[in-house]
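Just curious: can you write a single protein's sequence together with how it folds?
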Amino acid sequence: MAALPVFRWRLAPDGYATRRQLRARGLRPGGQPVAAQLERPRRRRGPLVAYLYRIDLALPVRPMTPARWAALAKANAARRICPACRRDAGYVIPTSLGTCVPCAYPEGVPDGIAA
């Protein structure tokens, strides 16, 4: 089993890209394995690692179909509905609370929490 090539931060050769760089070009890894990695040294902790994929093996991003747009809209709407009062909160319900703010704090928002 061969080890991955490791490059220093910002010194990767042409032909490699991170997931974000692929997405900016309208591409996706498409099931290919990680081809290399970048390492950015840090003083007190382990290095930051970014995985690189080969651009020539990347596939185009799948287009959004009307059914996918509808499913995404439905999922985002579900994140806005409070499970306690079943109302649309008008914002995405925080996972830390699990309910809308009025249901989480029925007697009012406590001091120190931005409303």
